Automatic annotation (TrEMBL):
Organism, scientific name: Rhodococcus wratislaviensis
GO cellular component, one term: cytoplasm
Lineage: Bacteria, Bacillati, Actinomycetota, Actinomycetes, Mycobacteriales
Protein name: Porphobilinogen deaminase
Superkingdom: Bacteria
SUPFAM superfamilies found in the cross-reference section: Periplasmic binding protein-like II, Porphobilinogen deaminase (hydroxymethylbilane synthase), C-terminal domain
UniProt modified residues of type S-(dipyrrolylmethanemethyl)cysteine: 241
Protein family per UniProt: Belongs to the HMBS family.
Amino acid sequence: MSAVGTRTLRIGTRGSELATTQAGTVRDALISAGHDAELVIIKTKGDQSMESVEKIGVGVFTAELREALADGRVDVAVHSYKDLPTARDERFTIAAIPPREDPRDALVARDGLVLGELPAGSKVGTSAPRRTSQLRALGLGLDIQPLRGNLQRRLGKVESGELDAVVLARAGLARIGRLDLITESLEPVQMLPAPAQGALAVECLSVDTALVAILSELDDPNSRAAVTAERALLAELEAGCTAPVGAIAEVVESLDDDGRIFDELSVRGCAAAIDGSDVIRTGAVGSPENAEELGRSVARELLELGAGELMNVTEAGDADV
């Protein structure tokens, strides 16, 4: 049975400030389009555990939302796209990827410092092996500390002086209206973001074609092309959201030989050793219509350059980086 019609669309979301704010943008867009909609809070394993994501597993922020879709408790689920497993689940369709926020990582540091101004030994918190590896590869001598919890908890570590800085997704700070806290937005040449960072996935049951059609009105083609390429890169590397892999894709305007403007998709990716000993980077440019194959081709080049071996580098005695 379709969820569309006179019914109020129930939008499943995690209960954090960031998650409800993200889902709220989808709710408001649906209401503006003439559809009644409301948020339904779903507790997830990721919200209830303070263990690292590597320990509690890929999909900890999304599995319960998907099960709520499957058993009819909600009609729509709104995910941070980077949290979804790369393996496709045929029960569900990503009906929309709304316009993406800036995908870069951001530094929030004491005293307004930028990354290059942090003294050697400064304690920098991050939850991601991807960030850990790339920060170490910069050779700044930073003391990287594991970090979990919601945005406010992470930010509080700097405010309290427990940490000198934290690295977070810029998009999250944008969505809760705290861009003022950022002391430096990290350019991709310093740190490539997580695949699909800053993007939302608006998901529903594949069989509900009427709802798919309604949600698809929220889709942004350029965001979809970029995210498709980045996720394909991750899938081709057979890596999950906790792997030390970064990627960024963007649709850019180019000129042909006759001076006519056309769109191209630029894709950059990296794989790193968790100890920061090496980072492999490569990229490619192609048609947005070939986003998935373009992402996979960048991944294959990374593998040819030794990414597989590099991602398996570990730190002796440190299982929770």
